Amino acid sequence: MTEYHVINKRSPRLDAPDKATGRAKYIDDLSLSGMLYGALLQSPFAHARIMNIDTSKAKSLPGVKSVVTAEDAGLVKYGVSPARYDETLFCDERVRYVGDEVAAVAAVDLETAMEAASLIEVEYEELPAVFTPEEALAEGAPQIHDKYPGNLCAEVHQEFGDVAAAFQECDLIRTDTFINKRQDAAFLEPNGCIADFDLNGYLTLHTSTQSPHYVMRTVAMVLGLPVGKVRVVKPYVGGGFGPKAAASPLELSACLLSMKTGKPVKMNYSREQVFLFSRARHQFRHVLTTGVKNDGTIVALTNECHLEGGAYASFGIATVYYGGSLLGAPYKLKNMKYDGYRVYTNKPACGAQRGHGGVAARAAWEQQLDALAKELGMDPVEFRMKNAMEAGDTTCNDLYLSSFGQKECIEAVAEGSGWKEKKGRMPAGKGIGMATGFFVSGAGYPIYRSETAHSTVVIKLSDDGGTATVLTGSAEIGQGSDTVLAMIAAEALGVPLDCIKVRSGDTDFSVDLGAYSSRQTLMTGHAAKEAAEDVKRQILDVLGEKLQIAPDRMDMKNGYVVFEGDAPEYEEIRTLYKKEHRGFKDNPVEGPLTFKEAARAAYLEKGSIVGTGKYKPGELGGKFKGAAVGTSPAYGPSAQVVEVTVDMETGKVTIDKMTDAHDCGFAINVTSVEGQMEGSLSMGLGEAMFEEVKFDDRGRILNANLGEYKIPTALDMPDIETIIVESNEPNGPFGAKEVGEGAIMPTIPAILNAVYDATGVLVQELPLTPERVYMALKEAGKLKK
Amino acid sequence: MKRLIALTINGKLHEVAVAPNLTLTDLIRYDLGLTGTKKGCEVGDCGTCTVIMDGKPVNSCLVLAVQADGREVLTIEGVETDEGLHPIQQAFVEKGAIQCGFCSPGMILSAKSLLERNPSPDEGEIRTAISGNLCRCTGYQKIVEAIKEVSNKG
Predict the structure, then answer these.
(1) Looking at chain B, which residue has its C-alpha nearest residue A676?
(2) Phi-psi region of A665 (alpha: psi -120 to 50; beta: other; left: phi over 0)
């Protein structure tokens, strides 16, 4: 077994001291001299025609520097998937949801900007609106986009195997309908940005984003600037979870206002505006029919899904595909049919959120599988073990599982939770449930069609040789990527972690698609490893010449040069280093040749030592339409066991314990892997138990705040046990793959299955409020009086 | 019409003229430049703006600057000791209790306030004390472990 000095250990995060002391700067902590403040004017109507916009009063307010509408911004269509660009920066003739952007203002301070926005006079003619997929798909329904008749944003039809024939072979077939609720990502830092258009025509956007690269491209495209003139810089970001993975109207407005005024412009969303911007979890309605044999073999699945998408596509094209492509696996299923429909409504656009597109489908199916297991008289663990896929398998929709510790995860949680002792032996009102799930380790293809590398990394050595700076466009948004990349670079270069400095989140540093689809550890990690190896090779080449020794007979380990066989004479290099560093206290005196001596020698020979690395996945997936969505160089499976108490009189559900196992391939930073698992469970618990964005009958959000939109507090979270499974992913750097999203997949169904175990009742709509569970118990005649 | 107030922040007396509607959060962040105090909701839901005022943790977004006249306020910038990180900060760093970090200043101040009142809290008391500080990243597991770590020592 390879001995590692840095990775596969518990490392404090590099950014933690700054974050613990208030030193870490987030977007609203920054200011630039001469900075103006921006405010948006957003639609008060869910659907209306804009008859006239009069900005004269706003423009004449003292302190106002610029007022912009569609007339100034132009009507360049943008969005996330190029095939469905359906937004313009400002609405032209129509607004499509409460919150749709109509105009923006820059002024000397925020109060003036907000007052000016309120002075813009917009004449609307209200139009009939649709708020549910049923309303939107009804004949004669008001049309939201002329280009997409019937309010159908996207539809997907896929069939693998022969589903109709397969159902003929089944001994048992079940159909169930499942509904989740529209979620808000509820990251704690509201989106914010500062745009700075300088006098040389360069635009710098400082913004709280997950993807500087995508934002750079969208800003350049919408505002008509060359991509090379736009730089996007990400300060520390207070969480993203999906909605910060694409350019927002806030960012585009700030850029336009800065271009108009020649001054830096700061803009922030209020918490209410974060809810209005949304772009988080869709509402899905899944109708699943699954057929099994008496021996427990899962034979066939049909999955029909309607997604309530809101007014624009956002990430939704990918979402509707993920709603189908992430079922099938992790089970050996040969026949699967998927019909997905993403429907426009007059509500804020939904987009991507942790476990993109797959969370509701997974909850629906895993719950159905437990119902099937019960009818078959099989233990849920045994049922899943029988059907679970393994490394080397390919799913019916052509996803290749190069490593896949699904069975190991199931066994780990069964053992860790004491499943055998507890299942079927819980006291009344208590239940235990299990579920599995998996997620991609980086999307196989960029969101725009391109042959680009997904990640490039540059590593530059300091001239004294002692420090290596990792330069990357990747996005540290709280998940710990900076530290993971530093650990990978340190291990690959052969130096201790404290010799590595990471500068990230800047499009000037490198190309990186950003923090979404759980891609950075694998993809940016690969590029960082390759760049470090490039640096190491350059040093060893010089050293080889100086010492008259073949470079492949040397290596770097933990800050020292390691020679195969006897060490050659290197006193000349050491003497030179010491001569150059007279007066310094940390000069090497005796012992093995150090990394910095070797690196200094390389610098003296070659000048600045710079290494580069890149990563792009190979060809992945099948040839059918939509085959790209769901492809990935690797997949991270998970399993969970949840224990609950259900109050049979009131319907109140309490989560008592959660046991989670996840296969992350190989843990780079053990503490961070656990942290991602714990955070996933928390977000899944919130969605299962209380999260729901609610609307009134005119499309206005009723709970656009963190008091009434409830996310888990410390009191809602039970004790969590996390078990890391390592499968050594052949496509991952040092064997590593994702953990940030696979771990959320089993959470909701494990809770649902525990409730099913406790009550015998399948609750098939989220969230599990006491009222909903009470009604379900009552309907089933299980209510205790 | 601005009003002159005098308050002590992290042991230093500040005399400032403030508008009557200025919140303590905005005073601390924008007028005094202590940006470790965060702004997540501005209505007292999230706890990211937590500071300790006269010994008690408060949401500084719900306190007007004029109400802080004559008070003593501790922000995250005042928690470090002459020896470096405060033991609670150190535990948060070492235990992995920090991810995005946006809740961390408020969380650390709530924990500090708890441990001053009750040096050896049980898990329920820890969870209750930080229940006004939302965290979306960690599931609170490592935060609770970090606070336990310090309380055991104390």
Answers:
(1) B138
(2) left
Q: Which of B13, B15, B34, B132 is nearest to B78 (CA)?
A: B34
Q: Which residues of A touch B38 (CB under 8 A)?
A: 26, 188-189, 238
Q: Rounding to the nearest 10 degrees, give the CA dihedral for residues B86, B89, B94, B98.
A: -170
Structure tokens at A416: 């860790």
**Using the beta-carbon criterion (under 8 Å), do A16 and B100 form an inter-chain contact?**
no
* Contact between residue B127 and residue B139 where contact means Cβ atoms under 8 Å apart: no
State the nearest Cα–Cα gap between A658 and chain B, in angstroms.
Answer: 11
Whether chain B has a CB inside 8 Å of the CB on A679: the answer is yes
**Average pLDDT of adjacent 10-residue blocks, chain A of 785 residues:** 91 98 98 98 98 98 98 98 96 97 98 98 98 98 97 98 98 98 98 98 98 98 98 98 98 98 98 98 98 98 98 98 96 98 98 98 98 98 98 97 98 98 96 98 96 98 94 98 98 98 98 98 98 98 96 96 94 94 90 96 97 96 92 98 98 98 98 98 98 98 98 97 98 97 98 98 98 98 92
β-sheet bridge partners, residue A457:
A472, A613
Decide the pairing of beta strands A468-472 and A500-503. Answer: parallel
- To the nearest whole Å, the CA of A747 is away from the closest chain B CA by 13
Q: Give the dihedral sign, CA A505/A507/A509/A513.
A: positive
Judge whether A678 is closer than 8 Å to chain B, CB to CB: yes
> CB of A219 within 8 A of CB of A233?
no
Measured between CA atoms, how close is A719 to chain B, in angstroms? 7
> Residue B139 is nearest to which of A28, A271, A682, comparing CB atoms?
A682
**Sheet of B12-18, strand order:** B12-18, B3-9, B72-74, B50-53, B56-59
DSSP string, B13-72: EEEEEE-TT-BHHHIIIIIS--TTS--S-SSSSS-TTEEEETTEEEEGGGSBGGGGTT-E
pLDDT of residue A368: 98
CATH 1.10.150.120 applies to domain B87-150: yes
Report the C-alpha gap between A523 and B45 in whole angstroms: 37
The tally of CA atoms less than 13 A away on the side-chain side of residue A239 is 28
Q: Find where tokens 């995860």 sit.
A: A409
A22 with B142: Cβ contact below 8 A:
no
pLDDT at A307: 98
Common-topology check for domains B3-78 and B87-150: no
**Model pLDDT, residue B1:** 87
Q: Which residues pair with A331 in a beta bridge?
A: A388
- Degrees to nearest 5, angle at CA B138 with B136 and B141: 130
Q: Do A239 and B141 touch (CB under 8 A)?
A: no
Question: Which residue in chain B has the smallest CA separation from A240?
Answer: B100
Closest CA relative to residue A30, chosen from A198, A257, A268? A268
Count Cα neighbours of A22 within 13 Å in the Cβ-side half-sphere: 26
What one-character DSSP code corresponds to residue A350? Answer: P
DSSP code of residue A76:
-
Task: Give residue B154's pLDDT band: very low, low, confident or very high (50, 70, 90).
Answer: very low
Q: How far is CA A452 from CA A314, A328, A455, B120, in A?
A: 22, 30, 9, 55
Is A12 an interface residue toward B (CB < 8 Å)?
A: yes
The residue extents of the domains of chain B are 3-78, 87-150
Could you give the ipTM of this predicted complex?
A: 0.98
Rounded CA-CA distance B94/B111 in Å is: 16
For residues A178 and A290, give the distance between their C-alpha atoms in angstroms, rounded to a whole number: 14
Q: Please tell me the distance from the alpha carbon of residue A232 to that of residue A221, in angstroms, as a whole number.
A: 14
CATH of domain B3-78: 3.10.20.30
The phi and psi torsions of A356 (rounded to 5 degrees) equal -35, 115
In chain A, residues with a C-beta closer than 8 Å to the C-beta of B108 are: 20
DSSP state of A570: -
